[in-house]
Amino acid sequence: MSLPGDFVKICETVALTVCPLVGRPEGIEPECYSRNVEIAGTLIFQPATIIIHVIALVMTSIMIYHIKSKYTAVGRKEIVMFFYLYMMVTFIELLLVSGIVPAASDYFVAGHIGLITATFWCLLLNGFVGFQFAEDGTPLSLWSIRISSLVVFLAVFGLSIATFKNLAGFTFDHPLALWIVLYIFNGAALAIYFVLQIVLVLNTLDDRWPLGDILFGISFYVIGQVILYLFSVKICDTAKHYIDGLFFGTICTLLGVMMVYKYWDSITKEDLEFSVGSKQNVWEVKELLEDEQAYSNYPPPPLPQGGFTGYQQPQSGYNASYPQQQYGAY
């Protein structure tokens, strides 16, 4: 079992992006990893996992589109930041895992680790949005998430570079601080978010179905991590190097993110007064048109004694030559 700060056992099991830059001067190579393919003279690593990354980018784009279409939903602008960060993490990971960018590119790997931590941090802050400590959509709510996520990214990016280059007392052969950030800080952020959402649903919502969404989301993520760190080598050997644990870990992470979207969608309701193209409004307009058409088939009612109805105009003076005008009363 891996000790705190020890990436050797971890990287011998699964090919993480950080593995070529920690533990040993030459990096740590996994015992078994997915085979590569050659495309136009270029070696592409982890082809099956890359397909999942592309699917994740497409699915995230669709989720972002649907979030933006809910114009009046609570926390719409806050939660979309999380999905943008996840998309950036997925794209950088695709470049590193595939070998399009060399795996030992310290600045790319540091950016990837920084984005991962910023994504967990953004998710944690979104967990507080439903409690309305700051009104959602306001500059205070939005910029507190943006600025703090940027600070977290820069801090972890700097820590990663210092670790890879043995600066400021940090060393690549025993990267304890980096290990704490990746596994303790990020894990705590996810756990706190999970607890906050349970409290939110139990205390403020009558519907308990959203609990199922968040439970499925955390379950998918945990299952993915278990497969990634415990069964990657066994999967790789069984599948004859076509796939490894990284393939299933990426799938489970995507499913977890999709359940975060499903959970948010289930606890937010759009105000139909401001919705565009509402079917209810279409049916109301149709009924009004049918009523007007039915009303026009009957002759106008006679004038009551001593007055006019609606906006009837009497025939007098220079208007006498024109027929009486009738505008139906509403």
TrEMBL record:
Annotated compartments: Endomembrane system; Endoplasmic reticulum membrane
TM ranges: 44-67, 79-101, 107-131, 143-164, 176-202, 214-233, 245-264
Keywords: Cell wall biogenesis/degradation, Endoplasmic reticulum, Membrane, Protein transport, Transmembrane, Transmembrane helix, Transport
InterPro entries cross-referenced by the UniProt entry: Chs7
GO biological process: cell wall organization; protein folding; protein transport
Superkingdom of this protein's organism: Eukaryota
Pfam family, one: Chs7
A Gene Ontology cellular-component term: endoplasmic reticulum membrane
Topology versus the membrane: Multi-pass membrane protein
Gene Ontology MF terms: unfolded protein binding
Main location class: membrane
Family to which this protein belongs: Belongs to the CHS7 family.
Protein known as: Chitin synthase export chaperone
